[in-house]
């Protein structure tokens, strides 16, 4: 085997120079691992211990797994349908779970190899046959006193990191056996061998953390940590390795955010102080309700930020219906009073049009300056979307460029060339996570000086997530609902177990419509064409039927349980003018039921809608369900949300729905959501699907560590803002949080 000179191999050395070309190609094509550093940062997903069990009973059919188990017995018998013999090997996990391994063909050597008592790692896809879990023809490696099968131990027969099938499995000599995220073509033991070669060959990298920080926080050196996470001798060694590498991740993210916040604080901005006799005061005087204490507090925070000579960078988070829009509008009016313009960027045309109409209604004559019934001291509103006709677009852009429109509401169309502002003073971004940093910067760039920025989200954010994802923003939170908002009752409807409950749900919807109210029916998919009831119920290859679709469900409801009701359809594939028309018709009360996708998830405000039925509710995320149900109960009548599912009692999907039904506390649900999905989706992985180096940190379990990293990052940036005295640290941060991942952090 040919490898690099130990003195010259570095983290950026290509793997083909270290483990052989064929193995390197497999690692690259199946796991996106190209360099020594990529492999060393491909951490084990778990560690098995010889003599301890893997919970075989928890394995799911269709899952690609690696199981540590002990051979219990072997059985050879002739095959019925063809010549040859079938070898069945029963593997146990020490806790009552058993798994059958099946091998076809005459392979007497396997029977000798897989003798009872042997421990091994077995990798393959879980299937089920006559009620028994099994792996068909799995790859495997035997531990301690023997060898693996040739196909598993030497996956591609190449040179490089593979060892001959006759050698001892050195990778698993310790008590803790690393199990890596793997692929069928690259099992975990092949990865372990490659890691051993790289650890023994590559020069340990320079430690980027300042020595004083390592000492004060009792952190291992980086080289020690990388060796310890892959080849730990003890649990204590593994803990110290993981703790150090988590620190690197948390510190890199916090340094990035603290640096961004530090730079933004140095930018100049035009102060927009509050006036006591302007539009804002007139607006407050005509509000038909009293602001909540939370809205008043947020108002003071925003007003103080706008009055400074540095740009406001504030996140406003609040439950669905907590009154964020009114807070944003009051800030916009303060900027208009100071001679500037404010722009609200919304993610969809439906939401932009609704914001525009809602603000016009709230402002009344104050928003119709220049019209017959307008207030001469008021301002004008402009709506800029991609579907505007040429004449309407030209008129809107003229009012924006001239400064006549003090408040501009729009979609991505606001970012295009040709949309010019006279004096853009404030940018409000609604549903911040729907926009990327380039889009926000494109709108910022339309101002002569950096404008003030307020970003809003109705998705409740746990504290550690806010600190890690929005750490460059000041945060305001609205936690109370305005007076007059009604409670929302939520119930799970187990359609498979109790079909009568689903029938009752449709009756309940009809009762609400008969009482003069309206309803939503939400489906996970748009669908291309109508389907028959048989097709809707048909199962796919995985045993699951496809998700229900708007195009399929709407006609079935119209001909069935909702016959005679006025039903509309809304989804993202409709032309913009048709979407707006449907929404207007529903808002006006001319439709009884709106069958829709999650296009209604954000910002749709129809106070007369009191009931929502979510079909295939288990196909939605926790936060998404919470957002959806916030569309009902927005008026004086109580809201009802029915979560329809075929998930059986005790299944994880059902437990998730039970949790949503049990509480309306969005922050508790946000934590639950985070617990139940991969945190890399929140923290590190990019939307383009690229690998992330941020993979150990848990935003819930490591809250204390994140707080400590935040404090150290603030102290270091105050002393050395651009990390000029810490070049190795700057390079490490750039590797862990590259430009694309930094954008992901801003997207949230």
């Amino acid at each position: 085997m040919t490898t690099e000179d130990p003195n010259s191999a570095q983290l950026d050395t290509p793997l083909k120079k270290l483990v052989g070309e064929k193995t390197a190609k497999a690692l690259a094509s199946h796991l996106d691992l190209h360099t020594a550093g990529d492999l060393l940062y491909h951490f084990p997903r778990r560690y098995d211990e010889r003599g301890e069990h893997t919970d075989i009973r928890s394995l799911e059919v269709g899952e690609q797994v690696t199981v540590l188990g002990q051979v219990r017995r072997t059985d050879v018998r002739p095959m019925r349908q063809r010549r040859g013999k079938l070898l069945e090997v029963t593997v146990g996990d020490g806790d009552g779970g058993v798994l059958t391994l099946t091998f076809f063909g005459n392979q007497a050597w396997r029977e000798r190899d897989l003798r009872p008592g042997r421990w091994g790692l077995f990798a393959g896809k879980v299937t089920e046959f006559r009620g028994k879990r099994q792996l068909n023809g799995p790859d495997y490696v035997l531990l301690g006193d023997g060898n693996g099968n040739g196909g598993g131990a030497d996956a591609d027969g190449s040179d490089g990191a593979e060892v001959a099938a006759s050698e001892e499995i050195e990778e698993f000599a310790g008590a803790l056996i690393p199990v890596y995220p793997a692929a069928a073509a690259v099992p975990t033991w092949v990865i372990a061998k490659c890691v051993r070669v790289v650890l023994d060959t590559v020069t340990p990298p320079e430690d980027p953390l300042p020595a004083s920080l390592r000492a004060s926080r009792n952190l291992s050196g980086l080289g020690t940590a990388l060796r310890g996470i892959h080849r730990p001798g003890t649990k204590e060694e593994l803990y110290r390795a993981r703790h150090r590498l988590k620190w690197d991740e948390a510190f890199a993210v916090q340094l990035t955010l603290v640096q961004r916040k530090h730079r933004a604080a140095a930018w100049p901005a035009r102060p927009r102080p509050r006036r006591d006799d302007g539009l804002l005061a007139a607006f407050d005087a005509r509000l038909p309700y009293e602001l909540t204490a939370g809205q008043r507090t947020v108002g003071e925070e925003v007003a103080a930020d706008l009055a400074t000579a540095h740009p406001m960078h504030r996140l406003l988070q609040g439950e669905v219906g907590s009154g964020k829009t009114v807070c944003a509008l009051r800030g916009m009016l303060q900027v208009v009073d100071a001679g500037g313009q404010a722009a609200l960027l919304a993610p969809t045309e439906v939401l932009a049009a609704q914001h525009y109409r809602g603000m016009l209604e709230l402002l009344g004559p104050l928003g119709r300056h220049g019209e017959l019934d307008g207030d001469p001291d008021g301002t004008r509103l402009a709506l800029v979307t991609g579907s505007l006709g040429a004449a309407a677009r030209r008129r809107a852009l003229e009012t924006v460029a001239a400064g006549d429109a003090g408040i501009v509401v729009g979609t991505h169309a606001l970012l295009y060339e040709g949309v010019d502002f006279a004096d853009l003073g404030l940018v409000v971004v609604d549903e911040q996570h729907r926009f990327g940093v380039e889009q926000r910067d494109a709108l910022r760039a339309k101002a002569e000086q950096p404008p003030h920025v307020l970003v809003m989200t109705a998705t409740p954010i746990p504290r550690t997530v806010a600190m890690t994802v929005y750490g460059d923003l000041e945060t305001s939170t609205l936690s109370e609902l305005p007076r007059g908002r009604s409670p929302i009752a939520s119930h799970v409807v187990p359609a498979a177990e109790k079909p009568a409950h689903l029938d009752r749900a449709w009756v309940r919807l009809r009762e609400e419509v008969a009482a003069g109210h309206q309803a939503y029916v939400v489906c996970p998919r748009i669908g291309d064409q109508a389907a028959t009831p048989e097709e809707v119920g048909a199962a796919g290859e995985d045993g699951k039927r496809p998700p229900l679709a708007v195009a399929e469900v709407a006609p079935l409801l119209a001909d069935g349980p909702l016959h005679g009701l006025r039903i509309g359809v809304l989804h993202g594939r409709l032309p913009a003018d048709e979407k707006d028309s449907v929404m207007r018709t529903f808002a006006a009360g001319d439709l009884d039921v709106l069958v829709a996708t999650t296009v209604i998830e954000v910002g749709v405000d129809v106070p007369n809608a009191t009931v929502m039925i979510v079909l295939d509710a288990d196909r939605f995320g926790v936060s998404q369900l919470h957002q959806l149900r916030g569309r009902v109960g927005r008026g004086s009548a109580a809201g009802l949300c029915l979560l329809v599912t075929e998930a059986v009692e005790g299944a994880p999907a059902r437990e998730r729905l039970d949790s949503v039904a049990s509480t309306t506390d969005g922050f508790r649900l946000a934590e639950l959501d985070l617990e139940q999905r991969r945190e890399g989706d929140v923290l590190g992985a990019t939307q383009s699907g690229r690998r992330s180096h941020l993979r150990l940190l848990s935003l819930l379990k490591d809250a204390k560590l994140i707080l400590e990293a935040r404090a150290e990052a603030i102290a270091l940036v105050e002393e050395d803002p651009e990390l000029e005295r810490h070049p190795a640290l700057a390079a490490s941060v750039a590797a862990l949080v590259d430009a694309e991942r930094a954008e992901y952090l801003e997207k949230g």
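The two ends are 46 Å apart (CA to CA). The chain has 27 helices and 21 strands.
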